[in-house]
């Protein structure tokens, strides 16, 4: 199984866990005299089995990420960490950009006037450059995902 397939399966298992959790919650209490639509004990067993499968899969994905290297010698774990931090950096700068470029109208001359103290255009260019880096890094990661066999 390729790493990309395992990641897709992990996503499906996480969705299944959430679905089972909701179904269990919806069936643990019923009006007196009624029966639940689904047996909560059966659903709970299925939840535990799904979680066990998920745990094994995550361990295999993590083992694969530690040993998989790209052409530059970086491990998948390093690439994922770099992508995560790059995303955080972009989000932080976008929040600053949005605040700096927000237009605050004054209704009279007696109201306080706010001025932007940073170069909004330079910040926008920096965000664009980081977004390009993110896309390129994400493409490298995706290429590795489809080329790498999942560890046993």
In short:
This protein is an all-alpha fold.
Low-pLDDT residue spans: none
The profile of the biggest β sheet is:
none
What would you report as the Rg, rounded to the nearest angstrom?
24 Å
Mean pLDDT across all amino acids: 95
Strand percentage lies at under 5%
Written overview of the protein:
It is a single chain. By secondary structure, the protein is an all-alpha fold. The chain has two domains: 1-67; 70-152. 70% of the residues lie in helices and 0% in strands. It has helices at 3-27, 40-67, 76-100, 120-147.
Q: What distinguishing features does this structure have?
A:
mainly alpha; flat; 70% helix; single chain; 152 residues; 4 helices
What topology emerges from the helices and strands here?
Layout: H1 3-27, H2 40-67, H3 76-100, H4 120-147
Helix pairs in contact: 1-2, 1-4, 3-4
């Amino acid at each position: 199984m390729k790493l990309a397939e395992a990641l897709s399966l992990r996503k499906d298992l996480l969705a299944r866990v959430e679905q089972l959790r909701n179904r269990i919650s919806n069936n643990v209490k019923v009006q007196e005299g009624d029966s639940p639509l689904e047996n909560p004990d059966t659903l709970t067993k299925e939840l535990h089995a799904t979680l066990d499968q998920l745990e094994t899969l995550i361990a295999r994905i993590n083992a694969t990420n530690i040993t998989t290297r790209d052409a530059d010698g970086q491990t998948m774990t390093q690439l994922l960490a770099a992508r995560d931090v790059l995303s955080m950096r972009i989000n932080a700068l976008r929040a600053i950009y949005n605040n700096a470029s927000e237009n605050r109208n004054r209704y009279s001359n007696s109201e306080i006037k706010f001025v932007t103290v940073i170069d909004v255009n330079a910040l926008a260019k920096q965000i664009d450059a980081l977004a390009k880096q993110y896309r390129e890094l994400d493409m490298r990661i995706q290429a590795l995902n489809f080329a790498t066999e999942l560890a046993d």
